[in-house]
Design a protein that fits this description.
Low-confidence stretches of chain B: 1-29, 36-50
Shape of chain B: rod-shaped
Shape of chain A: globular
Largest sheet of chain B: none
Strand order of the largest sheet of chain A: 2-3-6-1-7-8-9-13-12-11
Largest sheet of chain A: 10 strands, mixed
Distance between the termini of chain A: 46 Å
Mean pLDDT of chain B: 67
Order of helices and strands of chain B: HHHHHH
Oligomer: heterodimer
Helix content of chain A: 25-40%
Strand content of chain B: under 5%
Strand content of chain A: 15-25%
Number of helices of chain B: 6
Structural class of chain B: mainly alpha
């Protein structure tokens, strides 16, 4: 018999909420919260549950939509590195956990909210991209709980075995990142996100990357890789792609325009599409905000090797929204190219001169460290840090205002 | 009860062609994926064998996908089969990267920095 009484605790931490114990469809009990209040008339039956104290509720939730990359992806590692500290899987837990935890950040993989495991999906004939294979109710409840400072028991989807493993405890961090295929699909979850990013890889680049990844694998051939992409495309276009319009920032990766007929996918053209009017987010710009600029840094002051670097910046419309687009085509060869470019970008939210370059160098072995993907991922990481600091500052400012009034 | 017993007997047969000894532990979990498992020991054997075991899984899943799609190229089964191939390929490449990075001494020292082998002297 579950304890059904719920007390709303009116304390300083008014952002706290106590959720009634819910049985998820998997039979996992969420942590029961029982605040034992000693009064003369009311007594509650105390069950053997842990009393969870709420944190200040200042968790910032970031959503990242990316195809087949979960927690271990380069973007996440760059992002957590900007905040300081290395992100690692939880110690002592399931070795196949997809979660990454650092001092300030926790990254969870939305694959953990699959309602159907691999066999289940095979039987029903649905891909993981299909919303029917995901439990959005549980996702919403748990993300809301974390945002309010309540720890949750989150299921684990084991990518190696294809099964759903016993849950792990996730404690609310300062920055909570949800990475996966559907962070912005459900409207309720979308409301909880403080900032959202969509990683849009064009088909040609995706094909080139998958070839690099899979050709060494026994059993794979060019045809099988192509067939795999083609088979997933309908579901991808129907369910994942539309999330682009909701994202606050889109990183679009396209083949380069500097090399005619290039199909290796080594040199990339990357566009950072930033929505205008997002609270606490000021888009990066080149030289003059709101104007259209085309810039080739290579010349007298800077010598670059083939194919060089080309930047452009300008306002555009994207799915009916006003956006600013910063684009980089080409790759960096030397450190001084990177620092030169950084010194000409504005609104990058660095704390000191050369921070972007330093971050890029720290992870020089990561893929994309010499082109726009690494650069824009690092810049987005810095913007998120800036966003977090602004949110925290506004939250600490507000109670002071209330006490003054 | 009989039906449950029937289930458990059936699944190993389906998996017979794919099962090796490291995977027998996984089969026990296979029949009731929705049940909470209080495993004190996670099937580490499967994870340790990841690259070889995973490579085989990838190769088999490709064969299954090609068969499924030969019958009906636009069916849900075809898409689900290729999605599985994609998932396994991703897992295989992640496992390969993890294997490349892991240095036994570094891993040990992360957990036990106070031991003699791991002490660092700054001055």
């Amino acid at each position: 018999m579950a304890v059904s009484t719920v007390y709303t605790v009116l304390s300083l931490n008014s952002a706290c909420s106590i959720s009634k114990p819910n049985k998820t469809h998997l039979g996992f009990n969420q942590k029961q919260l029982v605040f034992f209040k000693k009064t003369t008339t009311i007594t509650t039956t105390r069950r053997a549950t842990t009393v969870i104290t709420c944190s200040a509720g200042d968790t910032v939730v970031i959503g990242l939509a990316a195809d087949s990359g979960c927690g271990k992806s380069t973007f996440m590692r760059r992002l957590t590195s900007v905040f300081g500290g290395a992100a690692e899987p939880p110690k002592g837990g399931n070795p196949d956990s997809n979660t990454l935890i650092s001092d300030t950040t926790t990254v969870i993989c939305l694959d953990d909210y699959h309602s159907l495991d691999r066999t289940g999906r095979k039987e029903k004939g649905v891909t993981a991209l299909d919303p029917r294979a995901n439990n959005f109710d549980l996702m919403y409840e748990q993300v809301k709980a974390i945002k309010n400072g309540v720890a949750v028991e989150k299921p684990i989807y084991n990518h190696v075995t294809g099964l759903i493993d016993p849950p792990e405890l996730i404690k609310p961090p300062k920055i909570f990142v949800i990475e996966g295929l559907h962070p912005m699909y459900d409207a309720r979850v979308r409301e909880l996100l403080d900032f959202s990013i969509y990683l849009d890889i064009s088909n040609e680049v995706k094909f080139a990357w998958k070839i690099q990844r899979d050709m060494a694998e026994r059993g794979h051939s060019l045809e099988s890789i192509k067939a795999s992409i083609e088979a997933r495309k309908p579901d991808f276009d129907a369910y994942i792609d539309p999330q682009k319009q909701y994202a606050d920032a889109v990183i679009e990766v396209l083949p380069t325009q500097l090399i005619p007929d290039d199909n290796e996918g080594k040199v990339l053209r990357v566009r950072l599409i930033m929505k205008e009017g997002v609270k606490y987010f000021n888009p990066v710009y080149l030289f003059d905000e709101g104007s259209t600029i085309s810039w080739i840094p290579c010349g007298r002051k800077l010598t670059c090797s083939y194919p060089g670097i080309k930047f452009s910046y300008g306002p555009e419309t994207y799915f009916g929204h006003e956006v600013s687009v910063l684009e980089m085509d080409g790759q960096f060869d030397r450190l001084d190219e990177l620092i030169y470019v950084e010194s000409h970008l504005s609104n990058i939210s660095t704390k000191f001169y050369g921070e972007v370059t330093q971050q890029m160098l720290k992870h020089a072995d990561f893929p994309g460290s010499n082109n726009g993907t690494g650069l824009f991922q690092t810049i987005v990481g810095l913007k998120i840090r800036d966003l977090y600091e602004q949110i925290v500052a506004s939250k600490t400012g507000a109670p002071l205002e209330a006490t003054k009034a | 009860m009989a039906s449950i017993a029937g289930l458990t007997l059936k699944t190993p047969r389906i998996l017979a062609k794919t099962s090796d000894s490291p995977k027998t532990k996984a089969i026990n979990n296979f029949s009731f994926p929705w049940k909470k498992r209080f495993n004190t020991q996670f099937p580490r054997l499967v994870a340790a064998a990841a690259p070889e075991g995973l490579s085989e899984k990838v190769a088999e899943s490709i064969k299954t996908a090609e068969e499924a799609c030969a019958e009906d190229p636009v069916s849900g089964e075809c898409a689900a089969a290729w999605d599985e191939v994609e998932e396994l390929s991703a897992a295989a490449s992640h496992a390969k990267d993890k294997k490349k990075e892991s240095d036994p001494l570094e891993n040990y020292c992360k957990e036990n920095p106070e031991t003699d082998e791991c002490r660092t002297y700054d001055n």
